[in-house]
Amino acid sequence: METPEKRIERIEIRLAIEDLNRNFCHYLDYDMVDELADLFTEDCSYSHGSRMSEGRGEIHALFSDRIAAGLRTSRHLQTGLKIIVHDSKRATGKSVCLTFACDQSPPISPATPFLVADFIDEYLCSSSGRWRIHRRHIERIFTAAENRGPVKITGK
Fold it and tell me: Has this prediction a pTM greater than 0.90?
């Protein structure tokens, strides 16, 4: 049987990971690249299709290049987060992300989904107690006809 202390620890871990995922979408949508990259461990991996970024520096470069490529309005809506807490330092998760994206300023019409994808994640907790994304793989499930693939592979 789970002790009250373990139950509280599990709840705290779940809340930290939920915040981590909310922050990922927020920082991505509002071009907060420094904050976004800091959500990952130093030795992380981040993959989307055939695109692979290794380490926090490559993730920072990827999203800095995304901003430099020109106007991009996006909103990422993440839901269905399923978390498995393995121990006090490691957890895994899977969720669904619905993305709206367009290369123009809002308001944008019509509002049609650009991508629906699964996020398949591994999370680690540092010695300071901060949870970060160690691995994130984006698996494309539904794509809009105009979606040419992940940023950096397509140039946009």
Answer: yes
Residue 127: give the domain boundaries: 4-143
Sheet arrangement for strand 90-102: 51-54, 40-48, 131-143, 115-125, 90-102, 73-87
Beta carbons within 10 angstroms of residue 136's beta carbon: 22
Which two structure tokens, joined as six digits, stand for 24? 């990922």
Q: For the chain, how many structural domains are there in total?
A: 1
Query: Which pLDDT score is estimated for 152?
Result: 67
Q: What CATH code is carried by the domain that includes residue 11?
A: 3.10.450.50
Place of tokens 């619905």: 98
The pLDDT of residue 156: 46
Q: Which residues of the chain fall below pLDDT 50? A: 154-156
